[in-house]
Amino acid sequence: MDFLGFILTQCLNALSQASVLLFLACGLTLIFGIMRIINFAHGAIFMLGAYVGHTVAVLTGQFWLALIAAPLVVAGVGALFEMFLLSRLYARRDGGAYLMITFGLAIVLSEAVRLIWGAQPKGIDLPEVLTGIVFLLDQPFPVYRLFLIGLGVSASIALWQFLERTRTGLLIRAVSQNPEMVHALGTDIRIVRTGVFALGCGLAAFGGILATPLFGAYLAMGNNVVVDAFVIVIIGGMGSFLGSVIGSIMVGFVQVFGAYYFPSLALSLLYLLMLTVLIVRPGGLLGKEE
Amino acid sequence: MRARGLFILVIAAAAGFGMPHLLPGYLVNIVTEALIFGLFAMSLDLMIGYTRLESFGHAAAYGLGAYASALLLLSFDIPMLIVIPMAAIITGVVAMPIAWVCTRSTGISFAMLTLAFAQLFYASVYQFKDFSGGSDGIAGIARRAGPFGIDFFQSKIGYFYLVLIILILAFLFCRSLVASPFGQVLAGIRENEVKTRTLGYNTRAYRMATVVLAYAFGGLAGALYAPLAGFASPELFFWRLSGMVLIMVIIGGRGTLVGPILGGAVFLFLEHELSALPMVRELWPLIFGSIFIAVILFAPQGLWGLFLSWRDKRRIAVVSKSQTDAPHAAS
User: Does A261 map to a domain?
Assistant: First the structure.
């Protein structure tokens, strides 16, 4: 019974870890699917979300408000970046240029965060509902992690329904398949691009603020997590939404169980997993090879 | 024109060789490190500028070279002058399977695969602590004298000369490489890989060879760094270094060899010097990130590329002016 309880809590830990990663990875894969851009600034955006959320929570004392406001603010920053800088590069059709300009944005954003908020890590207070502990098979488990799992599941279903069932979702999928054709049929794809980039940034910021109660907001948080998000998106297949959901769960489990059973291998396991997937399927699990 | 290029090279070399005697002592090490970084950036230019293989994990080469030379110097009684080329060759050999895997893909997948390998090395350094020293890195790397009792390169100024000579030789090699038939095939891959393959070239083999060569030269730079710093740390493998060197290649001007050398060297030198000023130190990464974004937007050919096109335009202007002037002179 003890062993079962242990396995259960470890699985739930892995799933809650996967939920935070999911928001990051979904944003990344959406942006890639539509724009063929690997957003290197995604880690910095994640961090920006955490810091903005911290400020909102401190000013208003409302965690829930921070959860809504931070993604909106960060999505606005993303939209501005896309409209004024990134859009100038589309005509060049050079994948490398995107990679580099978003890397530049990552540097500028993380430095701006350091100058504005300082080098001290920031915590965030949870509302009372989320602070407790429940007992599952006699094992204590934090309520907040259960909340994360719930959010992760509902958000993936909501996003999936949005992409599959709504007119906007249809438009997004159409642009990812053939932007010229969609443009020719009378849709302004510039708005779709700006919107998707903003949506991706907002999702990352949401992940950032969700991660803050677990580890706090600190300057290296983006750098630490952005590579995980890349690994997820590559394992799942770039641009595939379902792929990144599967990838998040795989990475969550590998991280939690790897740290427990093979502590010395923990860091390498992730990259070994990714290399194995890529050698077998160069396009990722659900991706198309380009 | 070729004679003039050679002339400029000789002048630059002479200035380089005179430099350590004109500079205050503490700057010699910084300039040496700047030259090493220039060599590192140039090695990446072989991939990015000439073959359009956008690697985001070139730190792997630097770290491998640095750890190889550090471990060889510490564990065996081999002179430094032999260890450095050995470390470069080891890096090239390790790069062969990496090149085989990475060249299965192109474009963004290629960038991500190179990144994965670099991160794998980064994680491995932490994992094999007994071998690599873990997060402490390897310290106390000595510059061992010899062979034949040569001890000139052990001193601070001597080491500067060693780095300068190696940089010049590597530059001359790479310049003739990119001008050779081999280099022309690389340019063909850069411009249109399908067309090049249709012409009968095994483009994947050429891409693999480029990756191995670029890693070997990157390893050479890393192998020079370890004895200079006396230290090798896992950060040498981290993706931030890969990103930095990529930035240097782009700001300097990809596909020019000279541009990345200047970009890498000037960047490292500026960073060291500006860090001394408290005001600038705070803002330096921000300034430098903004410059990088501006260069990508407005000067995609890089600063050296900008200079070259300005020079060409001026030359055409001079030639056409002399042609239009000629009839007047005749009449």
Answer: yes
- Set of chain A residues whose Cβ sits within 8 Å of the Cβ of B115: 227, 230
Cβ neighbours of A271 in B, within 8 Å: 116-117, 119-120, 123
Question: pLDDT, tens digit, for every residue of A192-236?
Answer: 889 999 999 999 999 988 888 888 888 888 877 888 888 888 888
In chain B, what residues touch A282 (CB-CB under 8 Å)? 104-105, 109
A274 contacts B243? CB cut-off 8 A:
no
Q: What contacts A80, CB < 8 A, 6 or more positions away?
A: none
Please report residues of A whose CB lies closer than 8 A to that of B285.
107, 111
User: Nearest residue on chain A to B115, judged by CA atoms?
Assistant: A227
Find the CATH number of the domain harbouring A22.
Answer: 1.10.3470
CATH code: domain B2-324 is 1.10.3470
**Buried residues in B85-102 as b, exposed as e (16+ CB within 10 A):** ebbbbbbbebbeebbebb
Q: Is residue A136 in a domain?
A: no
- Domain positions in chain B are 2-324
Q: Examine residue A173 and state whether it is found in any structural domain, yes or no.
A: yes
More confident call, B264 vs A80: A80
Which positions in chain A touch B101 (Cβ < 8 Å)?
A: 275, 278-279
Nearest alpha carbon to residue A241 among A161, A128, A140: A161
pLDDT in tens, A97-154: 787 888 888 888 888 888 888 878 887 777 777 777 777 777 778 888 888 889 999 9
CB of A116 less than 8 A from some CB of B: no
What pLDDT, on the 0 to 100 scale, is given for residue B43? 92
Rounded Cα distance, A103 and A106, in Å: 5
* Residue A264: strand, helix, or coil: coil
pLDDT score for B137: 74
Domain that residue A75 falls in: 2-118+141-280
Q: Does residue A289 form part of some domain?
A: no
Q: What's residue A288's pLDDT? A: 66
Q: Please tell me the predicted confidence (pLDDT) of residue B61.
A: 93
Burial of B299 (0-12, 13-18, 19+ CB in 10 A): middle
Q: Does A94 touch chain B (CB under 8 A)?
A: yes
Residues within 8 A of B (CB atoms), A 227-256 only: 227, 230-231, 234, 238
Interface touch B289/A111, C-beta < 8 Å:
yes
Contact A250, A64 (CB under 8 A): no
Calculate ∠ Cα A95-A101-A103, nearest 5°: 105
ipTM score of complex: 0.77
